[in-house]
Specification:
Elements (H helix, E strand, L loop, with lengths): L1 H17 L12 E6 L8 E3 L13 H4 L7 E13 L8 E7 L3 E6 L8 E3 L9 H17 L3 H21 L9 E10 L5 E8 L4
Antiparallel strand pairs: 1-4, 2-3, 3-4, 5-8, 6-7, 7-8
Helix pairs in contact: 3-4
Length: 205
């Protein structure tokens, strides 16, 4: 009898863990939630920004807001047969399974080892000689292009590159001081002394 009680208590704890903070999780850390129909596509990524004002009175708000604000999520499965009307999303919302994906980020080369655990710190870039030189070259190309199409493309490419670098330095979905595992080292970064890696956030115990 004592053994049966311990087993039942263990099952209850396991079930509680699956629904912790309102999140229904399976062994692979998938979360069942609701998203706008336009986002409900396998492979789609989004950052959860929280509930809108209109969500407060909605009977489905607990199912829509069971994600963590500021986290990035990847849609892994769409339950096509289920759709609900919504005051915020004109096409309604669908039931999906999401998970936190691995995130690309910059890490110091000396710490960039596959499988290692690190404490994530955003990268603050300070202009090096090479970086400043690259910016000047981009501006010069734009000036040579004048008002033609070539000049516009040159400037756009530079801005896009700067945006991508900023994203690597400050990836959405990760917060300063969080424990992460380096899943993969993708290669050299466009900044000396750094590598581009894929990070997976470790769940807090």
């Amino acid at each position: 009898m004592h053994g049966l009680w311990n087993r039942l208590r263990g099952d209850a704890k396991a079930e509680k863990g699956k629904k912790e903070n309102g999140k229904e999780k399976d062994e692979d850390e998938k979360i069942v939630t609701l998203v706008g129909s336009k986002l409900a596509k396998v492979g789609e990524e989004f950052v959860f920004l929280g509930a809108a004002e209109k969500c407060r009175q909605c009977k489905l708000k607990n199912s829509c807001t069971n994600l963590e604000v500021g986290r990035r999520y990847l849609v892994e499965k769409v339950r096509e047969e289920i759709k609900h009307d919504c005051e915020v999303h004109e096409d309604g919302v669908r039931v999906v399974e999401v998970r936190e994906p691995a995130v690309k980020a910059l890490v110091e080369a000396k710490r960039a080892l596959k499988g290692s655990k690190i404490i994530f710190e955003p990268t603050a870039l300070r202009g090096s000689g090479k970086a400043e030189e690259g910016e000047r070259e981009g501006e010069a190309e734009g000036e040579r292009g004048g008002e033609g199409e070539g000049g516009g493309e040159g400037e756009g490419g530079g801005e896009e590159g700067e945006y991508e670098l900023f994203e690597l330095c400050n990836p959405l979905g990760l917060k300063k001081g969080e424990r992460c595992t380096i899943l993969e080292v993708l290669g050299d970064a466009p900044v000396p002394g750094f590598k581009v890696v894929k990070l997976k956030r470790e769940e807090e115990e």
